[in-house]
Specification:
Elements: H1 3-42, E1 45-46, H2 47-53, H3 60-74, E2 79-84, E3 91-96, H4 98-109, H5 138-152, E4 155-163, E5 176-190, E6 193-200, E7 203-208, E8 212-221, H6 224-236, E9 250-256, H7 258-264, E10 274-277, E11 286-292, H8 296-304, E12 309-313, H9 315-330
Antiparallel strand pairs: 1-3, 2-3, 4-5, 4-8, 5-6, 6-7, 9-11, 9-12, 10-11
C-alpha cells in the first residue's frame, strides 16, 4: 500500500470519527431538550434549578440557548410558554392551553352530531345551538356508511332515487331523479348537513345524503385521485355547494354597510373573496368581490343581510334578486305559499 492510499484511509477514518462525534453531540442535545421540556411540563423552574437537575452537565448559558430552542421549535399548538417574573430570577413553565384543546375537540366532533368535553366539569362552558343542524335518522346513517365504503374503495355506486334536491341539481318538475350510476368522490359537510360530491356522466353534482335511497356499491372501480382536483375546481365555481344557473363565472360585487361589512369580513365565504373599504365614502362602506357562478344559495345569502347590502354587479344577479323580491311580495295576497324555483328554468 503506497503513501497516497494510507493518507486517503486516514482521512476517511477521521471523517467517520468526526461524524460519529457530531451525531453523539446531536443525540445528547436532543435528549437534553426532551428532559428540559418534560421538567417544565411538570413545574416552574429557574435556570439555576435546571442546571442542578441536569447534574451540571452543561453551562447556564447553554441552558439559555436550550430554553430558546424549546420555546421556538419544540412547543405544540396546544401549549403555552410561561415566564414568571421574580425579583431574584425568572422561572419557566409549559402550560397546556385548555381552550385550544376544547376548541379543537369541538371542531372535530361537531360534524358527528355533538360535543363531548375533555373535562366533564366544564360541560356548561362550551356548547352549540344545533341551529341549522341536520336531524340524523337511521337511513341517513346507513347511507353515510355505504358512501364512505364506496369512496374508500374507489368504487362506483348505483342510486335508485334522489328526491327534493336541496342543491337544485335537477330540472325535473317532480324534483327527483331515478336510476343513477355515480362516481362518489367526497362527502362534504356544509351548513349543518352532509352532501355527496360526485360525477354523473361526467357532470359534477352535489346531493344531500339524506335525500338518497336505494344506494348500492357496484363492482366498477374508478381513479379517485384524478377526480379530486375536478371536484375542487367545480366547487370553486359555486357559492356554497348549490348548482349554478349556468356555466358562467361572474365577477360579483356587493356593497355592505360599514358595520355589516366589518362583520362579513371576519368569515370565509368563498376562496376568491376580497374586501375593500370605500375610504372616500362618509360611512366607510365595504365592497366584497368574488368570482363564482350564481345560484340559489348566493341569492339567499344576500337576502340574509336585508337592507345592509346592495348588489353592484353583475346585472344577472340583480335581476334574480329583484325577481325574488317580486315573488315574495305576491305571497302577501295568497292563501297558500307556492313552491317556486326561479333558478331552474
Amino acid at each position: 500500500m503506497n503513501n497516497a492510499n494510507i493518507l486517503q484511509r486516514k482521512c476517511s477514518f477521521a471523517k467517520i470519527h468526526l461524524l460519529g462525534r457530531l451525531m453523539s453531540y446531536i443525540m445528547k442535545q436532543l435528549e437534553r431538550l426532551k428532559t428540559i421540556y418534560n421538567l417544565l411540563n411538570q413545574e416552574k423552574l429557574t435556570k439555576d434549578v435546571l442546571f442542578e437537575k441536569l447534574n451540571k452537565s452543561v453551562s447556564t448559558r447553554q441552558i439559555t440557548r436550550d430554553l430558546k430552542d424549546i420555546r421556538e421549535l419544540y412547543l405544540r399548538a396546544d401549549e403555552e410558554w410561561i415566564v414568571n417574573t421574580d425579583k431574584k430570577a425568572h422561572s419557566y413553565h409549559i402550560k397546556k392551553n385548555e381552550s385550544f384543546i376544547l376548541f379543537e375537540q369541538y371542531r372535530q366532533s361537531v360534524q358527528n352530531g355533538g360535543f363531548v368535553s375533555v373535562n366533564p366539569q366544564i360541560d356548561d362552558i362550551l356548547d352549540k345551538t344545533n341551529f341549522y343542524e341536520l336531524k340524523k335518522n337511521e337511513s341517513f346513517q346507513e347511507n353515510f356508511e355505504i358512501l364512505y365504503r364506496a369512496i374508500s374503495s374507489e368504487t362506483k355506486i348505483f342510486v335508485s332515487k334522489i328526491k327534493y334536491y336541496a342543491t337544485a341539481e335537477t330540472d325535473k318538475a317532480e324534483l327527483q331523479d331515478e336510476d343513477l350510476e355515480l362516481i362518489p368522490v367526497k362527502i362534504m359537510y356544509h351548513r349543518g348537513d352532509f352532501y355527496l360530491c360526485s360525477f354523473y356522466k361526467n357532470t359534477f353534482r352535489t346531493d344531500k345524503i339524506g335525500q338518497m335511497t336505494g344506494i348500492k356499491i357496484l363492482e366498477k372501480k374508478f381513479n379517485r385521485a384524478k377526480q379530486l382536483q375536478k371536484v375542487s375546481t367545480e366547487l370553486e365555481k359555486r357559492f356554497g355547494i348549490t348548482k349554478n344557473i349556468n356555466k358562467e363565472v361572474y365577477e360579483i360585487k356587493l356593497q355592505f354597510s360599514s358595520a355589516t361589512g366589518t362583520f362579513v369580513k371576519e368569515f370565509r365565504w368563498h376562496p376568491t373573496q376580497n374586501f375593500e373599504t370605500l375610504e372616500k365614502s362618509t360611512t366607510k362602506d365595504v365592497v366584497m368581490t368574488l368570482y363564482c357562478g350564481i345560484n340559489r344559495e348566493l341569492v339567499g345569502w344576500v337576502f340574509q343581510w336585508m337592507s345592509n347590502v346592495k348588489i353592484i354587479s353583475p346585472p344577472e344577479l340583480v335581476a334574480l334578486y329583484d325577481e325574488m323580491l317580486e315573488e315574495m311580495r305576491k305571497n302577501k295576497n295568497k292563501d297558500y305559499v307556492p313552491s317556486t324555483n326561479i333558478f331552474n328554468k
